[in-house]
Write a structure and sequence with these properties.
Layout (H helix, E strand, L loop, with lengths): L2 H15 L9 H5 L17 E14 L7 E17 L2 E16 L4 E7 L3 E10 L7 E10 L26 E12 L2 E10 L8 E2 L3 E10 L5 E12 L3 E2 L2 E2 L5 E15 L2 E15 L3 E3 L2 E9 L1
Antiparallel strand pairs: 1-2, 1-16, 1-17, 2-3, 3-4, 3-5, 5-6, 6-7, 7-8, 8-10, 9-12, 10-11, 11-14, 12-13, 14-15, 15-17
Length: 299
Amino acid sequence: MRPTLAVTLVLASAVLLVPGAPAWACATCACGDPTLTSMGTEQPFSGRLRLSTTLRAWGHTVGEDNVNAQRLREARMDVAAAYAPLPWLFLAATLPLQAREVRDVSLARERGWGVGDLEVSAKAFLFQDKAFSADHLFSVLAGVKLPTSPVLHAKDGTELGLDAQLGSGSVDPLFGVAYQHFRGEWSFVASATGFLPTRGIQGFRAGASVRTTLAAQYQPSARWAVRLGLDGRFEKAADINGEKEEDGGGVIGYASPDFLFSPATDVVLSAGVRVPFFNQLHGRVSPTPIAMMSAAYDL
């Protein structure tokens, strides 16, 4: 990763963790639920503002070793904000900062870094059994990924390959549903989100996909919790100008353990890993585990 990007990531993380103006009440007091939550699974209340940053490191290898293998590695930081203007509505935006390296079997490399594609969404809570300290929540999600990442070029002016680009150059709608249940020291979440990509740069169009999560969390203390999830992705193969790609598309499942810790009121830190245990992607696609760390702060 280049020094400039590293400095950017550190400064952005620091900004998100600087306390803001005093709030009228802590998030736990306002929603009546002490459950430690990662970004996107919090209980709603009017005026809630949550900032977060999430670091991810991941990669995959496509193709056959010593023949046509191409290795992708990425370090990514998502800077996100979510605001509830109404007790039943969350508006959210996520902007990724990314650094990528692609190496093929000849050891030739392409590197790209910068701002990725912005994602904006709205989550509406259609049902909750109680206005305060709800035990059951049902929500729907609608959003779009926007082509905010610039097209990257090599020093000679030629465009980098698709895998080295940080964005798709397409406008991609997304829709989802989620159910959450809170029961004493335990909480549970089940969700599914569908993505309908459009065609973008270099004639590329990602396949339509559905991403699912089923997770349980145990919190014996106000300060820490453990979470175990199963994440799945079902997707059609991508195509370039209508020609279907041979590698990719299919089904993959991840086991997702996390540890959550709250060092201070309204601050939640988490660390975890997404381990691929079921890989039925078409062709030769070998994903690495995904390492994750995040920090969230409620104003």
